[in-house]
Amino acid sequence: MSTNRFHRLRELFEAASELAPSARPAFLAEACGDSEDLLLEVQSLLSLDRTGNPFLEGDWPELLAEGALVGPYRVVREIGRGGMGIVYLAQDTRLDRRVALKALRPGLQAVEKQRERFRREAGMAAGLSHPGIATIYALEEWESGQYIVSEYIEGVTLADELERGAVSLEAVLDIGMQVSAAVAAAHEKGVVHRDLKPQNIIRGTDGRLKILDFGLAIVCEPDGGAHSRLTEAGALLGTPGYMAPEQLRGEAADYRSDLFALGIVLATAASGRHPFAGSTAAVTLAAIFASEPLGLDHLQKASPRLEAVIRRCLNKDSAQRFQSAVELHQALEQVQAAGLDAPPEALPASAVGQLGMRWWVGHQIGIVAACVLLTAALWQVSVWVPDRVTLFTFIGGLAVASVIVTLRLHLIFTYRRNRSAIFRELTGVTPWARREDWSFSLLLAVAGVDIAGERRLVAALLLGFAAAYAIVFLFAEPSTRSSAFDDDSSG
Questions:
Q1: DSSP 3-state assignment of 151?
Q2: Where does residue 490 rank: exposed (0-12), middle (13-18), buried (19+ CB within 10 A)?
Q3: Which residues are the active-site residues?
């Protein structure tokens, strides 16, 4: 987004905010002219303005009356409206079930770009199958209008819950784990929501949370790197109070933008207030760029691990956030496993942390390979110089190497499959691994000394390998472990 466009957007928002709600639509229609994107962006900004918003509360003409039929769906009542559409409770007369019927708001039904976005929303959401995402049943075309038919979830939105203030930390952790799992399922299909906020998360009567409204979602196209980036940039689409800085700048967003929004949701749930403290969209927009998140002090005292997770989600630099919803979910699992009041631990999630983790895993694989090759070398030495010492060093080396390989493969497997347990396993495995490493290095040295009189070159190689192996586990291994885990603990 250019500087001129940003200032124009800011001017229009501030001017519209000073008008009576009923006067805003006409003013914006004239001020924005043919720029539909600019109009939508101002509407999006106004959606956070608590002083009143005609796009949320305004005098829209009635679209569907009670009892109206849309195909086989009979309207029961209106149950909600947002900046882009209206949602009705309806009865499916064929299958005798209640459904939610979402329609574009009056005025947008005739805009082809919005109709295409509506169709895209239905298609993307219909391709997602997860208990934490509302199920899409159909897209209906009826009397020149479009309607998305979806699962009706009886319950209250997270926004309604948070109106009463902060919730318990156990509830915050539960919200984070449920929503991050659902977001991970969407991201796995390449879908970025782009409008995660409490209003779009509903808790059913069974206590489960479900994500709603994929109206601003878009499919990522892999760019060959660690992430996938959106192909659409330059438009400020979403709710500004829940948008990542890169979105507010009009830049291309990716999966990590959803994690920023989820961080705001969790911070609000934990503290009872928006972490960037803005009461209007303009204040919040500026605060997201310039301010550090507020209201987390009590959380830091009560649960430093959970506070560290939330702060990482809220990092202004997307490279320093969790790099996927899966990583965020695993970090929350780690918090749950350790206990909310446990001291902070390492959370490998930043770009630096990810590089450290790859280096640590590569180190473990390298040690496994070295043990296998050096054990084979001890066998060959026992063939070349068949005496009791070489036989003993081979048998001992085989036993010790088997333990080393087993322990390190166990650590790799734990990291890959149950990352929340990796710190506990590291604590238990490291002393054993250190003893076995010393033993293996010593056996290599003994074999080298034993054959020095007959095979000088081989003996020198064995002594060199023994020294190199000792240097690796004494110095290199602590360094890789620190880069992967310890350096991230401050996040």
A1: strand
A2: exposed
A3: 195
Amino acid 45: pLDDT: 65
Strand boundaries in 207-339, DSSP class E: 209-211, 218-219, 221-222, 228-229
β-pairing verdict for 136-142 and 145-151: antiparallel
**pLDDT for residue 348 is more than 50:** no
Domain containing residue 81:
69-151
- Measured in Å, how far apart are the chain's first and last C-alpha atoms? 30
Closest CA to 60 of 106, 102, 110, 14: 106
Q: What pLDDT is attached to residue 273?
A: 85
How many independent structural domains does the chain possess?
4
State how beta strands 155-157 and 136-142 pair.
Answer: unpaired
For residue 207, what is the DSSP state?
S
Angle of helix 477-484 relative to helix 351-384, nearest 10 degrees, comes to 150
We report the CATH number of the domain holding residue 213 as: 1.10.510.10
90: left (phi over 0), alpha (psi -120 to 50) or beta: beta
Last residue of some domain: 31, 54, 77? 54
Boundary of a domain, candidates 338, 362, 392: 338
**143 pLDDT higher than 50:** yes
Question: Which residues does residue 145 pair with via DSSP β-bridges, in sequence order?
Answer: 142
Determine, yes or no, domain membership for 64.
Answer: no
Per-residue confidence at 99, pLDDT binned at 50, 70, 90?
very high
Helix (H, G, I), strand (E, B) or coil at 361: helix
Number of residues written out for the chain: 491
Any idea which residue has 């087993």 for tokens?
Answer: 406
Least confident range from 3-17, 73-87, 135-149, 434-448: namely 3-17
Same domain for 273 and 143? no
Q: Do residues 235 and 313 both lie within one domain?
A: yes
- Could you report the per-residue pLDDT of 201-233, keeping only the tens digit for each? 999 999 999 998 876 667 665 443 333 334 344
pLDDT band at 473 (very low <50, low <70, confident <90, very high): confident
Does an H or E element contain 370, and which?
Answer: helix 351-384
Residues 213 and 243 in one domain: yes
Question: What does the alpha-carbon distance between residue 238 and residue 231 come to, in Å, rounded to a whole number?
Answer: 16
For residues 400 and 396, what is the distance between their CA atoms, to the nearest angstrom?
A: 6
The two three-digit tokens of residue 15, written as one number: 């001017």
Q: In terms of domains, do 327 and 283 share one?
A: yes
What are the beta bridge partners of residue 201? 211
User: Rounded distance, CA 219 to CA 209, Å?
Assistant: 23
The answer to whether residue 487 scores a pLDDT higher than 50 is no
Q: Are 333 and 385 members of one domain? A: no
For residue 330, is it within any domain?
A: yes
d(CA 307, CA 422): 20
